[in-house]
Amino acid sequence: MSYPARTVRSMLSASTLAARPEFTVAAVGCRSDHTRWSEPEARDDHRLVLVRRGRFRRWADGTDADLDPTMAYLGVPGEEERFAHPAGGDVCTSVSFKPSLLGRPLAAATVYVDARVDLAHRRLLGATGTDDLDYALTEELLRLVAAAAGGLPLRPVSADRTLAAAARQAITEGASEAAGLCSLAALLKVSPYRLSRVFSRETGVSLTRYRNRVRVSQAMDQLAEGEASLADLAARLGFADQAHLTRTVREHVGHTPTVLRRLLAPGSRASRAARSRSDVLVPD
Fold first, then answer.
1. pLDDT class for 36, splitting at 50, 70, 90?
2. Whole-model pTM?
3. Pairing relationship of beta strands 46-54 and 56-60 according to DSSP bridges
4. Are 73 and 23 within one domain?
5. Pairing mode of beta strands 71-75, 109-112
6. Are 26 and 128 part of one and the same domain?
7. Could you say which DSSP state residue 77 is in?
8. 223: phi then psi, degrees, rounded to nearest 5
């Protein structure tokens, strides 16, 4: 005899850690200690579920598996699922995503969580607390799902170079689609996973790092021109807020925007030195 589905649901708690149209990251906890199977239910999403603490059993389409921090599962739409909790409660990370993120659908599977996947999981959880969901978090999510799925095949090198160059152009020229990794990938007609992986391999830096480097340069340009409002500057450059701008600028150049404004002000010693070097290097 199984417990009614509503009984199991009443034992669940879920909180969304981050969400975008292409994915949702949630923390799911279950206080249930029932050893018997819940009523079958069907999901309509692709998802990767990793156990952070505890253990439970999952039955799907005739096969059951024991899940703990060393074993995760990839679920697909249409699967009938049942759950049992013979060891008490558990806490999991559930990543629901569109298969277009990786460029292809993934098959349902029980996945061994090796140390590489464990690290990717921890990095994803850390990124949910950042202000940059559209690049930093998205790249961590792609790394985690790809690591759990065992990786995907690479494309020819020449196509990779062209793709990386097109991404750099879109970012440096301020294309509206470059505001997010997923929208940039759609513009370039590739999956976000392929774009992220190719870009890192071709340039030596992540898309997140590259985009921030471009934005920091733009911030320095505008600070040198006398921009007075850091809040307005942050909004124009696509930062979440002034604090996000300040953290990113300090990470890249070692100074806050306030300090840079003074260093780059016309007439400052640093500004005079920069103009002097420019005069030497650029002939009339």
1. confident
2. 0.80
3. unpaired
4. yes
5. antiparallel
6. yes
7. T
8. -65, -40
